Amino acid sequence: MTRTLDHTHDPAAVSWVESARRPNGDFPIQNLPFGVFQRRGRGEAARIGVAIGDEIVDLSRAIGQGLLAGVDQEVQAAGSSRSLNAVMALGRDAARQLRHRLFALLEQGAPDQQAATGCLVPAETVDLLLPVDVGDYTDFYASIHHATNIGTMFRPESPLLPNYKFVPIGYHGRASSLVVGGTAVRRPMGQIKDDQAPTPVFGPTRALDYECEIGAYIASGNALGTEIRLADAEKHLFGISLLNDWSARDIQRWEYQPLGPFLAKNFATSVSAWVVTTDALAPFRVPAFDRPSGDPDPLPYLFSEANQRGGGIDVSVEVWLSTARMRAENVAAVRLSRSSLATMYWTTAQLITHHASNGCNLRPGDLLGSGTISGPSRDARGCLQELVGRAGESINLPTGEQRRFLMDGDEVTLRGACERAGTVRIGLGECRGLVLPA
Amino acid sequence: MTRTLDHTHDPAAVSWVESARRPNGDFPIQNLPFGVFQRRGRGEAARIGVAIGDEIVDLSRAIGQGLLAGVDQEVQAAGSSRSLNAVMALGRDAARQLRHRLFALLEQGAPDQQAATGCLVPAETVDLLLPVDVGDYTDFYASIHHATNIGTMFRPESPLLPNYKFVPIGYHGRASSLVVGGTAVRRPMGQIKDDQAPTPVFGPTRALDYECEIGAYIASGNALGTEIRLADAEKHLFGISLLNDWSARDIQRWEYQPLGPFLAKNFATSVSAWVVTTDALAPFRVPAFDRPSGDPDPLPYLFSEANQRGGGIDVSVEVWLSTARMRAENVAAVRLSRSSLATMYWTTAQLITHHASNGCNLRPGDLLGSGTISGPSRDARGCLQELVGRAGESINLPTGEQRRFLMDGDEVTLRGACERAGTVRIGLGECRGLVLPA
Questions:
Q1: Residues B40, B150 within the same domain
Q2: Exposure on the CB side of residue A229, measured as CA atoms within 13 A
């Protein structure tokens, strides 16, 4: 879809911020993701920041000092607020104006370098906050590999339900329990029924899992009763972040029929602090999933040549696990999986169009989870349930520990990045969560 | 649970507002429900109102004139805001203070009658708005009669799933598409697959339905990671209103596996404008559902003697239908069903406790739908799908028209009220919705 490249995508461009020139860093000048931060111990209000290397541009300070001259006044006002919603509400153009102006400020040789330096805050001195006040959070199920792996466990005879290749399956999640990466997550209690037991018991989940996803934030919304055509869908996509859809599999198994997951999921969902804009992702657009012959075409409202050609985004995501014992013994975290959003059966644009196809109104800052991102290979399975299956396999850790599901003290870290020959790596940062006891 | 009666429940009390003395009115002085209104054509901001007969007390005006002296300052500040959230956040005591003070102002013989008269606005001159900024909307499935009727259609061999008598089944709905009663609802488009057809088509739903429910609003919330014990649950219940969970049955049938209803529901959910407080409902408390012998007891976290004794609320709800032709021919609306919240398998307190049992945080103003309220008899079935079954029965209307599902131009009106010998009727008002073409 939106693949137009401009000077902000030039791989030769570098910033005068030295840490932004580190090879394989997450936040080079070509990225400029948005977040919300608060300096520690100063009692200051939260404010919008833009990541550059190991620094954060204090956006309201930069605006206050007149460094964003040329950017529309309403965009400057929105950029001085306490969450990204106001910027998102102004649409993708607002983010583009800010990104372009910040690029000019931060590029090597920028005339305003000295003034801009005064607006930098070292990332290590701040707390990163939930960047968006999410009105509604929807979680999809867009990986056919994930759906097939999970379906095989529950319905070996028909892993993939008949609707899967027609309907971008999704459900509403919980907005109140969204937390920013770094927030510890308490093991939930819930009803659990063993297959053999006649009745359920109420207790801490014994099957705590993560799900590695990408979250997509809505820029401008649509009015109730109106659709978003596929050709317009990406105009409504502000950007993406990492998302961990924590799941209690035993609670889920017992509660989810007939209305879907509820308490198995809504105790916490973690999102990473930085929202990488759709513009920054432009060099990493790839074709939509290549449907094998025999698969139906998407229905017309979900089909366009442009989406087929470039609706995918090649973001790779990784899951890393560290146990309390591993940390005590200075054993490095281990990578459990690596997969890519490009392998999803539905593109993000298709998710947006489907969501609004019945007239449902999306609002600025609404969050759409991709669903667990699993690829075709075993090491691309984005949750423990898929990795260990139902047969009782375990994951062996370097300490001799084993895991089927998460134990108290385990820390799960998601990482994500776009990498492609001839481009500069664009990182999503990380999304970390430590499991606390029930 | 909370059954303490005080002078505000005295059936002999009357207001000096004449229309509040009308027998069988919805809004006598014993009710005093909260809402948000805007006077038509004046360009004024929305403000909180309290219904009394055919009038509305302009709460911020009353507060501005010092008529709520004695009410805590923070409650007065919250009462002057533009939605009920701030009042809700202060907990049930805040609503009680306001209700008691307003009762004193509006009671016959009140010394401040003249000043209070200046704060009354005729209901017919205002637009009623969505009373609450709902953060998260959850819909339950608490009627065993509804679950059994629906289950029989989909799974005649096992209508009720094994979890039903243990788990208060619920799922997350859409907050953005909540609309206040009176708002017309557009027939949604969606994927529909006939049983015989090999593939779905995208088009207007042919099976538009209503669901007659009660919505419960949360007062003060709970912090993420903490529970709400059953003994405390009603402290978190601000009050109730009517709720119409519009549903497209054909879209639902095709999309709902495995993650539950999504586009079949999220195109619109209507709530009535007035929120009747938990205090006003005190005279209408009844025992929880009388589980037949053989049914399991609720698990301990969902069981208390107090809840068994008085956790139910005897609110009757009715569904009325009027077609375009009926209105053109001056034929009165027909009542399709009448049922009571008292027949639900789970009490509202149990829904609240279950919702937070995994540490999920509820926030002030969150909305919990009861699920379709159906009773054991045929004329107590709270949605068309139950009334017409799958066998192809139709509803015959006085004009000779027939209905299996809603047609364009149909208007559905929910009504609700508490009535009991020796008490004054407490009405919920109505929740109206006209179906517009796709």
A1: no
A2: 5
Contacts of A201 in chain B (CB under 8 A): 299
Give the CA distances from residue A138 to residues A169, A351, A431, B105, B178, in Å, rounded to whole numbers and listed in that order. Answer: 10, 10, 19, 46, 16
Q: Is residue A99 part of a domain?
A: yes
Residue B65 distance to chain A (closest CA, Å)? 34
- Same structural domain for residues A414 and A270? yes
Q: What is the CATH number of the domain that holds A336?
A: 3.90.850.10
Same domain, B86 and B62: yes
Answer yes or no: do B177 and A224 touch at CB < 8 A: yes
* Segment A241-249 mean pLDDT: 98
Q: Please give the tally of structural domains in chain B.
A: 2
**Cis status, amide bond into B398, omega within 30 of 0:** no
Question: pLDDT tens digits for B292-347?
Answer: 999 999 999 999 999 999 999 999 999 999 999 999 999 999 999 999 999 999 99
Distance in angstroms (rounded) separating the CA atoms of residues B212 and B382: 5
A226, A359 Cβ separation under 8 angstroms: yes
**Alpha carbons B150 and B406: distance in angstroms, whole number:** 18
pLDDT tens-digit profile of B412-427? 999 999 999 999 999 9
If contacts are CB pairs under 8 Å, which of residues 373-412 in chain B contact chain A?
none
Query: Which CATH number belongs to the domain containing residue A63 in this structure?
Result: 2.30.30.230
Say if residue B190 is in the same domain as residue B94.
Answer: no
Choose the final residue of a domain: A129, A152, A186: A129
Cβ density class A394-424: b for 16+ within 10 Å, e for less: eeebeeebebbbbbebbbbbbbbbbeeeebb
Q: What is the mean pLDDT of residues A133-141?
A: 98
8 A C-beta contact, residue B213 and residue B245? yes
Q: Is B358 part of any domain?
A: yes
Structure tokens at A108: 């090597």
pLDDT for B393 equals 87
**B53 plus B159 within the same structural domain:** no
Q: Which of A171, A189, A259 has its CB closest to that of B357?
A: A189
Residue of A nearest to B227 (CA): A189
Looking at the complex, report in whole angstroms how far the Cα of residue B35 sits from the nearest Cα belonging to chain A.
22
Domain assignment of residue B2, yes or no: no
DSSP string, B70-86: TS-HHHHHHHTSSSTHH
Q: Which residues contact A333 (CB under 8 A, 6 or more apart)?
A: A320, A321, A322, A326, A411, A413
* Domain edge (last residue) among B129, B157, B173: B129
B185 with B260, same domain: the answer is yes
d(CA A151, CA B182) in angstroms, rounded, equals: 43
Q: Is A108 helix (H, G, I), strand (E, B) or coil?
A: coil
ipTM of the complex: 0.97
Contact with chain B for residue A173, Cβ under 8 A:
yes
**Nearest CA to CA, how far is A425 from chain B (Å)?**
35
Contact A167 B191 (CB under 8 A): yes
Residue B65 falls within a domain, yes or no? yes
**B159 & B257 share domain:** yes
Residue of B171, B142, B168 whose CA lies nearest to B302? B168
Range of the domain at A163: 137-436
Contact call for B167 and A354, based on CB within 8 A: no
- Secondary structure (DSSP) of A150-216: HHHHH-TT--S-TTTTTS--EEE--STTEEETT--EEPPEEEE--SS-SS-EEEE-S-EE--EEEEE
Residue A34 has a pLDDT of: 98
The structure's pTM equals 0.97
Whether residues B200 and A362 touch (CB distance < 8 A) is answered with no
**Separation CA B87–CA B96 (nearest Å):** 10
The whole-number pLDDT of residue A153 equals 85
* Residues in chain B within 8 Å Cβ distance of A255: 163, 167, 169
Average pLDDT, rounded, for chain B: 96
Same domain, B215 and B358: yes
Q: Is the peptide bond before B11 cis (omega within 30 degrees of 0)?
A: no
**Which position has the token pair 């290549």?**
A290
